């Protein structure tokens, strides 16, 4: 069972704890049943002329024990489930943090996000149901032991009927599984269409032909989902009714047919009937929860599969034994570094390198090249996000490896072309307010936002303005190296000029090593050096070299 496997991760006593509390609850139920039957027998033997205080007292005592055992069991299960989910969530987060970045990108954000949010929620929201089911199974086992104690014939009869019921139930379940599979697929298609409608809402509004097509496709998908949903739920209801009917049939067999053929069982029929009636509640819970359980199992197995996949792509890094690298470095060197994207169709494969390169501390370095030439890929290698396929990268005499990769990344502040702007200045422990205000003024953004209590008052700004905040954040992080990927692409001509002619030289003056990917050929002369990429091959060119220019 995938759920149990998932919850037992990093807690090998969980199964034992559940078994003990389940056993106590089951025994309590069986004791209650036994007591009711003994009282009924007593009345039938001796009549109802006085109250049997011993039995009545025992009933009250066992009911109390049963009550507390049930409360303990259910709340224990809910706690175990929440703690188990917490553990797996933390485990997935840690695995994501430790995964090789390029392989993590291949897994895709959607799968990661869905597993950490939706899948955990499916299990968490149904914690109560899982508890009820577990309790029902325990109760059923205890009642069956009680039935066996009264009559082995009745026990095997019930097992036989349950067996036939399970076979029919599973056959129906197979059809149900197929319909649920189809339902999930249609649902995924529908969600994709909804996401398309929302993400492209501007484009949809702007052209009625596109909007008509998309809405028609969404309508068809939604109707199909309703149809399949109805079919699947219809099958669930039938399966449920079938499961319950089997027990009423069993009761009828025990009451009407068995006495005709077995005189030995006749005297025990009332006790066995009560036992069967006792089982109907738990069976009903189990039958009703089957479809939810298949969703829970699906979620658990998806999370386990993701965890396994993440374990396989774990980056070779040892942050615990990492040694900090000094902020005053001399140079970063690439020696015959190559890189290719994994799982890429070899016919369209892109190879970066081999690259030999040396970046000196305090330099202002521009990286130029056409679309798809490999600039962003080089930036990801330079920042240590991607690891070389061959060759080596080193900072001063330290080669980047298991112990140095995290400290190396800590030296580099970035604004990637697809950067994310955090409203909070995470990691900036002591913020110099004057300095923050200086940069807000310098970036001509102080009239629309401010920094208060370590966060931007607002980030709901234009894309060019958000980019400015991204760079201010990076500067305030006070790291010795700054890597920018097409930072000025969405700045207006006035600010673009200010960026290249004032801000970049100012950052250089402050001792920051700046590596900037750029297409702005008007300003190539502002760099100390220019590196040019063509189809993955890097060469150093003079600042006035015609390559990379119009
Ligand atoms: N995640 C990825 N998986 C596979 N191939 C990729 C991936 N990202 C980029 N590529 C490929 O690698 C090559 C270089 O891409 P890269 O993004 O480095 O180019 P670039 O020079 O930054 O281009 P642009 O100027 O358009 O931003 C391209 O052929 C691209 O298709």
From TrEMBL:
SUPFAM superfamilies: ABC transporter transmembrane region, P-loop containing nucleoside triphosphate hydrolases
Entry's transmembrane regions: 20-40, 52-74, 129-149, 155-172, 240-260, 272-293
Keyword annotations from UniProtKB, A to Z: ATP-binding, Membrane, Nucleotide-binding, Transmembrane, Transmembrane helix
InterPro entries, alphabetized: AAA+_ATPase (IPR003593), ABC1_TM_dom (IPR011527), ABC1_TM_sf (IPR036640), ABC_transporter-like_ATP-bd (IPR003439), ABC_transporter-like_CS (IPR017871), Cyc_pep_transpt_SyrD/YojI (IPR005898), P-loop_NTPase (IPR027417), Type_1_exporter (IPR039421)
Localization (cell): Cell membrane
The ABC transporter domain, residue ranges: 332-550
GO cellular component, one term: plasma membrane
GO molecular function terms noted in the UniProt entry: ABC-type oligopeptide transporter activity; ATP binding; ATP hydrolysis activity; peptide transmembrane transporter activity
ABC transmembrane type-1 domain boundaries: 18-295
Topology relative to the membrane: Multi-pass membrane protein
Signal peptide coordinates: none
Protein name according to UniProt: Peptide ABC transporter
Organism whose genome encodes this protein: Thalassospira profundimaris
Lineage: Bacteria, Pseudomonadati, Pseudomonadota, Alphaproteobacteria, Rhodospirillales
